[in-house]
Please model this.
Amino acid sequence: MFNNVGRDTGHEKGMTYRKIEQNQNAGELSATDPLGSNSEIGRKLKQYYDELISDEIPDRFSSLLSELERQESTRSSADEE
Amino acid sequence: MPASTSFRDGLLAAVPTLRAFAVSLAKNSDRADDLVQETLVKAWDKQGSFQPGTNLKAWLFTILRNEFYSQMRKRRREVEDSDGSIIARLSVHPSQDGSSDLSDFRRALALLPEDQREAIILIGASGFSYEEAAEICGCAVGTIKSRVSRARTRLQQILAIEGEGDFGPDAISSQVTNSAVVA
Model:
């Protein structure tokens, strides 16, 4: 029973230590890359943009490109005649 | 024909990121979609001036950005002639202002001047290098760097004022952390 508690505590301490180490590295990284994944603003910015990118794309863009392509092919076949 | 088909695919593949950039610039999704549409038409017409193998995405962003600023100049003239009611319609679209925890960030971003907003989006979100962003905006690399840095400082100020303590650990997680330290 007590042994278990002791082991858990040791485990927790190990975790905490690793976390501190990671945070120190994060500080160094964010100094060189102010918008990197370790900066709050950088993370929010990517989250904001990813949400916009994952929006459903209206069909109008695909239809528009098909229409432009169609116009071009009729124009070029008209040129050939 | 195969050349134009792959050009078409390239344009279509760029639509999501073009829209995201357009929404960030225009702060309005309807206007953003019009900007993207205009960009695609212009890109198609100027197809011959695009050098295959160069950065299609950067080329498209440049077209979209130019289109945005020329529309804005036109709108400004219209606003000067009228009572300024267009300004009201340029505000953030309600549908972008959802319940997600990003709404504060969106509002903060919308408060930035255009040059700072586009710089921080190009560098921090669209994945361009400082050199590419400078080319897209037609300015020096140093200018982009200082705009990004001012944008970042301004966002931090706005967000800190609007939601103090929001970014710290919440009550539950700090309890967990504390108990872990005690154990």
In short: Chain A has one domain: 2-80. Chain A touches chain B through 33 residues (CB under 8 Å). Chain A has three helices and no strands. The first helix of chain A runs from residue 2 to 32.
